[in-house]
Amino acid sequence: MKVLLVNGSPNKNGCTNQALEIIAQELKSQGVESEIFWLGNGLIRSCIGCGGCKSGNGCVFNDDILNTLGEKVKTADGYVFGAPVHYASPNGATISALDRLFYSYGRYMQFKPAANIVSARRAGTTASYDVLNKYIGINNMLQVPSTYWNMVHGSKPEDVLQDEEGVCIMRAVASNMVWLLKLLESAKGTDLEKPVLIQKVKTNFIR
Description:
single chain; 7-stranded mixed beta sheet; alpha/beta
């Protein structure tokens, strides 16, 4: 079993990464492999709603890191998406990446466990956490629970380690992720492996 941890911060070794490292350490202690994937600090295009990804070949834009992330998504058993808080919202690069990732590769993530974590110096964490949770909720995924909302605080990685409650929350995310992965593994080959699929119906408010 392997969990893909996505660091959406432009700072590779900042507070968001520190939170993900705590999760990775706990996963390892419970026998689960993980990888931290950094989105980087270069260009990440926004989704333009072109529908090109419906071909099944990923996003039509190949000049950034999104399709590289998408290939890793295909083989992961669980996911943790991490973002710093910028202006009381997840940073723009993370939003742009997740918009395109869920359009282009969402089918590979369905019925798998996922969690979101956010990092801030002080405020904006709950609002940012709510934004990120929308992606899990729309894609038939299992949201990994914790003991509080998944956030850490600090201006530098050392501060995060002093946020004792935040550290415990990250460890709980990892532990609950392992639990869900084991439950899903035990259900393979049985009628519990996936739910009965309900056909999606789209309606418009204005006719």
